[in-house]
Amino acid sequence: ATIVFPTNDLKTNLQPLPLNVTFAADPDGDVINISYYINGILNQTQLGNTTFNASDGVYILNVSLHDNVIPLAYSANVTVNFTVDTTAPGVNTTFNVTSPVQNDVINFSGNITDNLNLLSANITYNMSGAVTKANYTISGARAQIHNITTITGCVETCVINFTMYATDTSNNVKQNSTLLVVADVTRPVVNTTFNV
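Predicted structure:
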């Protein structure tokens, strides 16, 4: 038998998780039973592929085959390890200023955490109609990233949307968006005339 899915060392957020096995047909046409063991304990026996409902964790899948002929003769086990992770990373963001004005330097930073392992992060912001993206490769359970930019192109009041995305190795994604209002600092112009 060959375990087609999950592949060995797979990190996934799929629930329920498909368990797909392939094998050669029995030489004398007997029906084949597939025994699925999770962490050494029989989970189920089926005539075909099945699914596994799991909580987050690391698992060992063993599969063996037998026909229904007594005495039962089991095939050799095939084994894969896989991780189920349905928990999105945590993303906390901060700015170095709270009431920015034109030409201020903005430092948008974030602390990112995950219960297992981080994969990537992205900072996206839209300033004056121009979308800027900064991509980061990260790993481990904790990471810090930041982006420094100068506010330009804001004529009068404008709003900039800063978004930080984080993805873990199981493709769980979390985003944190913050709107930053750039204050109007242009002083009004007063034109007067006098009637004398």
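Summary: The mean pLDDT is 91.
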